[in-house]
Description:
The complex is a heterodimer of chains A (268) and B (266). In chain A, strand 7, helix 6 (176-193) and strand 8 form a beta-alpha-beta unit. Chain A is 37% helix and 24% strand. The model of chain A has no long low-confidence stretch (mean pLDDT 87). Chain A has 10 helices and 10 strands. By secondary structure, chain A is of the alpha/beta class. Chain A starts with 5 loop residues before the first strand and ends with a helix. The model of chain B has no long low-confidence stretch (mean pLDDT 93). Chain A binds chain B through residues 54-56, 79-81, 83-84, 88, 90-92, 94-97, 107-108, 111-112, and chain B through 129, 132-134, 136-143.
Amino acid sequence: MTESEPIIQVRNLIKSFDGRIVLDGINLTVEKGKVTAIMGGSGCGKSTLLRHLIGVIRPDSGEIFVRGKDITKLDETGMEDYRKHFGMLFQMGALLNSLSVHDNIALPLREHTKLDEKIIGMMIKMKLELVGLRDFEHLKPSQLSGGMQKRVALARAIALDPEIVFYDEPTSGLDPVVSGVIDELIMNLSRGMNITSVVVTHDTRSAFKIAHKMVVLFRGKVVAEGTPEEIQNSSDPLVQQFIAGSPDGPIPLRQSSRDYLEDLLDME
Amino acid sequence: MSEKAVQKRSTAMVIVFLQHLTSIAFFFRETLRWMVVKPFQGKPLRFKAAIIQMDEVGVKSIPIVSLASFVIGIILVLQTAYQLQKFGAVDYAASLASVALAREMAPLLTAIVLAGRVSAAFTAELGTMLVTEEITALEVMAISPIAYLVVPRFIAMLLMLPCLTVLADVVGIIGGYAVGTTAVGIRSSLYIERTIDGLMMKDILTGLTKSFVFAGIIAMVGCYMAFVVKGGAEGVGKATMISVVTSLISIIIADCFFTTIFYLFL
């Protein structure tokens, strides 16, 4: 892996909700033009981390530097400007149901550029061709399958040619073939167009396929970080359990803090 | 429940109420900012979206508002005629009904019909958009959900509710005329004369002022409740119910408040 410049740097990020600590001092670096996979089981804080990266929630403390600027301290205009420079693929696509595929992809273009409708139409065709759905322009999102909706959402995410694309569980709920297609698209974007990708996922198979770098979270902390090979050969039992998907190991199945027997005896 | 528990619960309820009050005030301020200030900072209003909403909340409400006000017009004339007969002043039912319609019944009735129809629709639609992350998606695309979704709905309500109220005034009076000249037996020319004599511009204008306020309440409550939806489909359903109840109650309280002010000072 060649050294390249960091584009995102997260420093000592802490966030708690109602006294429950969700992110407990996260440190990580994302390199420009690479695919970084953030992995971890449900409830490990990876979605919360992602929501910090896109500026939807603000941390209790810590910084997130994107291209040298701390995005946790941006004002409204600064945040708006930052958001024009990245795209985001939501877990369920999050296409606007009232708009056609065409208008969904046109939305960021119409909002943030002064381009002619004709040029916008051309750009939409190009983006749709990229995800292989050129003929579906005039359908509504509800007329598409889940995988197709995600591909349209990806086309929308890259409509403004962003430098960074964030993916929230890009392959969850999709069949293996469509997952493979999405993986392929992420890799093509990164290698062909030098887009930095941050993929939050619990799909280890897809993560090992696409990632240049992997970060494993557990209970709001980074427990492992490195190339896919390094993660594969990690001696940490937590990491091994997670990538093997085995029910036995240091990751507890039960999440209640009270003693089981005590809880039962307490019942009246 | 012990006294302490009751106390604790009621304090918690008051706190939740105050929290909602402050956040709805903030929501209102943001809406006004995107409606009044931002257009001068290069973020134009979305007239197209507002017109679509005006069709949705205004034009499509015409049948139900007409029906309701026609019936209320009939009821008003019949009920007042019943009392006025005793004084042999049955023709005054015409002016009584028209004044009652313009000052009170038409604005209130239209607002109540729209509270059911529109705040429910706003909360259900926007709440579902929140649950499916569409609102977050807008935000992340650097498109303000307030500007994109709330402001057009707010403008549509502010423009359409007074229009519908005028319609309700007219249709209500027609309903009263229909029953007043037939069942009650007032002469047609007398009925029209009494209506015109009784009704003053002030009556209609105070009614319209109220409907303007009701429009704001319906749009704000309907949109705000959507933005605080918690959980999935169940949350949307619950928020929709709360939104209708809240706007109904707020409308009635605001009506009482404004009627008192108009009575005392106008």
